[in-house]
Structures are given as structure tokens and as C-alpha cells.
Amino acid sequence: MRFSRDRRGQSVVVGTVILFGFLILALSLYQVQIVPQENAEVEFQHFEEVRNDLVDLRAGILTAGQADTPQFKSVELGTNSPTRLFAINPPPPTGTLQTSDAYNVTITNGTETVTIPSRFLSYTPGYNELSRTPTRYDGSVLYLDGRERGENVVVIEEQSLVDDGTVRLTVLQNEYRRSGTQRATVELYPTNSTSTDGIPTGEVNITIPTRLNASTYWDGAIGDESVYTGVEDDRYAEGVHGLTLRANSDDTRVNTVGIQESPNEGPVRENVRSPSAGDPGDDPTPDISMRVDDLTDRRSNNPDFYVSYDYGGQFDEIEVSATSTESTARVTRSLSSGRNGTSLSPTFGDGQEFAVTVRAIRGGQTVAQRTIYTFADTQNPIENDDLSRSDSASIEDYVIEDQSNKNDVRYRFNYDVSQTGSFSEGRFYVLNRNGNGASGSRNTTDRSVNNFRVEPGDGTNTPYKVSILVLDANGVVVDSRTVDDTADGTDP
Length: 492
Description:
Blueprint: H1 10-67, E1 71-76, E2 95-99, E3 103-108, E4 113-118, E5 121-125, E6 135-138, E7 141-145, E8 153-157, E9 162-163, E10 166-173, E11 177-180, E12 183-190, E13 203-210, H2 214-222, E14 228-237, E15 240-248, E16 252-259, E17 289-294, E18 305-310, E19 317-324, E20 330-335, E21 339-344, E22 353-362, E23 365-375, E24 395-402, E25 409-417, E26 425-432, E27 440-444, E28 448-457, E29 463-471, E30 477-486
């Protein structure tokens, strides 16, 4: 028998080689064409997210300086490409957020001069597919700066430095640099000490460092303002110009804000106020009283803060917000009453720290603000105020019974609220502390209830926060009772 002429397997081998070749070709085309397209889409999504983060960061810088309240913002520096089984990704696109060298703001009236160190802030992405155009914060302007690549400046947020002859300058200080793909937290602290001499009085000339020249931005942005006197090109360094203004010291307001700690570079300035419209001037500013009840459903990742407040000053609107210091979770409500209560649910952020803020706004300016920091963990902050009044309703008697059994969490409430006094409703909460059980709530407009049940469901033998809240006619929490209890059928 001769085997040398047996060709029965040749077609199979040839077919396999051809199929393998097509497979290699398809993978090559996928690597060269599809992978870059998909990664470009991921990078574009990150570009939109980081742009929103930087808009929020700019607002935080201005708020910290002008409202004299610390702000906590975060920026997602980079992103990651999707995991691939048969293709290769380039290195993850990182990003860098950093301050520049310090350049002095100069304020002089001809006989007296003060200088205040200031810094720019820039974010530069490390994209593999999209342009690596930096985003800069400069003189309250936020913009994409493509000039180094032969492109134009694209303004994201316009200047708020000059408005109707009034100068409001917020100077950024301290060195900062973060790089990577993670989310970076930026802590912004206003001045905690004030120079004794303030700024020079009378007519003052102000020079502010800027990377934007007259024709690129400032002529068009504030060219019709009486205080604008032009831009001196390359005054500080190549590409770092001097924006020049001439204004009366009474219409000039200068603040300093430090990154990660209080401003510490040279003289610091705090709230040098202008008595113009919308500014509280030297009049005493009424305090904001507030209370935060943490009603978070931990297992559902649903932070929930009921915020009560009382403010007796003049205002156009009251803004109430909850902002995570660790993520982008945020919610804001605008209210028209000086005494009110509202629920804030940021939709995610269980266990994260939140800045809960009540801000009074008049004439577009913040005239009073109060912030309480609390974690979304069902625990009320210790800074809460007592918002009850002499004419408020109050709890006269109550009973809380733990009727949980097997894996069914059940609580029964009896309570009596005073028959007189401002009252709108009673709220009853059974909140799992650790997220390993269900949470539930009910409410009633009755001043007296018996056998009022809240039955969340599973979660027995785990710790619970059990609360009764009494709200007045304005929706403000004026009385409460809270106990910690393990849902095991034994009364607290």
C-alpha cells in the first residue's frame, strides 16, 4: 500500500488556512477601525462629563469666595476603555488638573499698592483618539484653549469679573496637581484671616493676570464697561497678559480662595464689599437656622435629606441643595418662602458625605448661606438647630413597639400631638442603618394615632433608626423622637 499519493485531507487543510486568514484579517480590521471608533466614543462621553465637573468647580470657586463658605467639588480626571477579549486597548487616557505658577494681582491708587498672588487652573486630558486641548479657568472665565494647536478659544462659561461697573475678583491660591484616571476631590476654602489695611481707597487701578488677550476675549466681553482700560500683552510672561481695570474702591470686591487649605500665599483678602444693589453692605446679615433629617434608604442607594430652615432676611429666592463631596451626586430646589422644609434626593451616593446648603439670594447675589456636612447613613448631623416656636405643635406622648417576627420587620406607633399649635402632618420612619434590610415610612395628618403600622419587609435582627417627625404648617420639623433598635421583636 502506498500513502504518498493520498490527498484526501488537502482540501480541509487549505480551507482551514483560508478561514484562519479571514479571521486574522477581520481581527486586524477590528483593531484598526472599530476599536479606535469605540474608544473615541468613550473619550467623548468623558469629555462631556469632565466639562460639567469643571463648570461645577468654577461655580465652587466663586461661591467659596463670594459667599465665604467652603466648597467641595470633584473632577473625573480620566476614563477607561471597555474590556476587550480579542483586541488590544491603548493605555487608559489619564488627565491632569493643576494650578499654574503664581502671578500677582496689583491694586494701586497711585500712593499705595497691594499685590495678591493668584494662580490659573487648567485641566489637560490624555486622550488617545480625541484632541488633548486643555480647559482653563482664568479670571472667572472657563474655556477650551486650542491656540497651541492652531485652534481657537471656545468659551464654556463667560466672565463674572465685571458687571455694570462693579468688580468682583476671586483670587485662586495654593499649589495643586492631581493626575490619573480617578476622581479627584478639590477642596476650596475661603479666607480665614483678613489683612488690616484692605485695598487702597479711592480710584484704583487693578491689573489681573490672564492668558486671554484683548482681541481673543476681553474686548468683546467687557469692552463696553466703564472700568475696562485694556490688556497689556505679555506683562507677566510670554502668553500671560495683564487685564487692566480702573474702578472706585467702593465698587471693588476682592476675595481669596485656597485649594485644599485656606489661602496662604501673601496677603489675603476677605469680602471687601461694594454697597451696590444686591449686596448686603455693612448691614447685619440674619443667620439661617436649619435642620437636616437623614432619611436615607441605604439598601436602595437612595440618599434622602429632609431639610428644614428659617431665614428672616430679605431675599428673592431660597436655594436648598445637597452636593456629594465624593461624587457627582447633587440635587437643588428653589423655594420662595423664608421658612420651609423640602426633601432632597440626589438619586445615588449611599454612605457618601454631602454638603447640605441653604442659600438666600437677592439681586442675583448670595446674601446669606448655611451649610451642614453629613453622611448619607441615616444619622442626623449634630449641628441641627431647634426650629420650633412658641406656637408650634409638640409631641405629648408616644409609644414605639417592635413587632418584628421571622424575617418580617414591623413597628407599631401610638402618638399624641398637642391639640393646639401649628401642625401639618406626622411622619413615621423605619430605616435600616447598614443597608442589609428594607426601609419604610408612612405619614398622617392626624394629631393622634393608635396602632399606626410601618412594615418595611425583610431585615430582622439588624439595626434600625425608628423616628417620628412632626411638621408645622410651613413644612418645618418642629419636634421629633428617634430610637435605635434591633428589629428582633423586643420593644426599644
